[in-house]
Amino acid sequence: MQVHIRQIYVSPGHNYFGHHGQPAGENPIVPVDQVTCRAGRGLEGDRFFDYKPDYKGQVTFFAWEVYEAIKRELAVPNLAPGTFRRNVLLEGADLDALIGRRFQIGGIGFEGSGEAKPCYWMEQAVAPGAEAWLRGKGGLRAKILTDGILVPGVAELTVSGEPPLSPAAAR
Fold first, then answer.
1. Measured between alpha carbons, how far is 65 from 103 in angstroms, rounded to an integer?
2. Which listed residue, of 32, 90, 113, 129, carries a Cα 20 to 30 Å from 155's Cα?
3. Domains along the chain?
4. What's the rounded Cα separation, in Å, for the pair 3 and 90?
């Protein structure tokens, strides 16, 4: 099936991850025209690149449809798509269906490892009520299985014929 990669982001550092009880960081989220995906390592230039071996959040996907809906529902029409600090904004895919599955986007292999769960920082970054509104819609964390270059635009999404991974493997 065809999907649309609407935007790709990287950030050199963490603003919320590891900042519990401290102020948010000030690292920019940078839109890029392309990003190099490295199997088992992450996205070049991103804060989670080589974070730790076999890390399950080497890349995060966020649904463009959720982005558009939260702008309407929480009355934040000027909300920037990078606010969520997810790497790839993707239109036309059921991200929840990819949890525990191997899939390819634009010929690059990924494995959905779990939901990118929203945290209390969403209240500050997006709007009051955002954390609760985003529960179950926070995006998809994934491992990168093959090297490649991901670019915005229309891409082919294929899902492996293999059954989903066990629940323990998908955590």
1. 20
2. 113
3. 2-159 (2.40.33.20)
4. 7
* Amino acid letter for position 146: T
Sequential DSSP letters for 46-82: STTTTSSTT-TTSEEEEEHHHHHHHHHHTT-TT--GG
Strands 148-150 and 35-38 turn out to be antiparallel
Find residue 35's DSSP bridge partners. Answer: 150
Predicted confidence (pLDDT) per residue in 136-171, tens digit? 999 999 999 999 999 999 999 999 866 555 444 444
Give the integer Cα–Cα distance in Å for 103 and 112.
8
CA triple 126-129-132, angle to 5 deg: 105
Task: Measure the CA–CA gap between 144 and 37, rounded to whole angstroms.
Answer: 7
